[in-house]
Design a protein that fits this description.
Elements: E1 2-11, H1 16-32, E2 37-46, E3 52-59, H2 60-71, H3 75-86, E4 90-102, E5 111-118, H4 124-135, E6 142-150, E7 156-163, H5 166-177, H6 180-192, E8 194-203
Antiparallel strand pairs: 1-3, 1-4, 2-3, 2-8, 4-6, 5-7, 5-8, 6-7
Helix pairs in contact: 1-3, 4-6
């Protein structure tokens, strides 16, 4: 099982470059302190558009927690944290913790589209079956799903679509996303949950 730490920040006016430098530094420390993969991304459409996000993946919760304890004591991490406190460059949200429940999320993928459903946890088995059906509709993308573990909204499931480029994302939406088969599965998903937001991000 993979677990993830994710943080978001919307740059203040004129501070995007400084914010990016700080977030890249933090994610570098996470990589040195036990993360098995990382992702620095720009949210370009939908939810969080204009913000940056960082993600670090770990093998299970013990590794995540032990690494978290290590990197939050790292001198470079502490230095950046002090800069953030003294002179903020963005409006921060997180960190949050998530875990995968279907498939293996690939943080190296050039493009991720994320669709978030609000639902009761009792409906999770039904939703996973729907995710499987959507994942098998086409070989042009991969679909995984993650659940929040430490987050302000616990009644959520996030589907993560992986694409090789923005062009490929558009192609798949034309070919699959507007198809009768996909729309039928979307209707089934809305019987067990409610789609409340979606967004598109690119790896930087």
């Amino acid at each position: 099982m993979s677990t993830f730490i994710i943080g978001h920040s919307t740059p203040l006016p004129g501070r995007a470059s400084q914010l990016e430098t700080r977030m890249r530094t933090l994610i570098g420390v996470m990589a040195q302190r036990g993360a098995r993969s990382t992702r620095f991304m720009r949210n370009i459409m939908g939810e969080g558009a204009g913000s940056f996000s960082l993600v670090a993946e770990f093998e299970g919760f013990q590794k995540l927690m032990s690494s978290y304890e290590e990197f939050t004591k790292d001198p470079l991490f502490l230095d950046v944290s002090q800069q953030v406190s003294d002179n903020p460059a963005g409006q921060n949200r997180g960190p949050f913790v998530l875990r995968d429940i279907y498939g293996q999320t690939d943080l190296s993928s050039p493009v991720h589209a994320v669709r978030s459903y609000r639902m009761s946890r009792k409906n999770l088995p039904q939703m996973i079956e729907i995710v499987k059906e959507i994942d098998h509709l086409s070989e042009g993308y991969k679909l995984t799903a993650v659940l929040p573990v430490y987050a302000p909204e616990m009644d959520m499931i996030h589907g993560v679509y992986h694409f090789d480029s923005l062009t490929d994302a558009g192609k798949i939406i034309d070919e699959v996303g507007t198809s009768a088969e996909f729309q039928e599965l979307v209707l089934k998903a809305n019987e067990v949950g409610t789609l409340i937001r979606s967004g598109l991000n690119i790896k930087m």
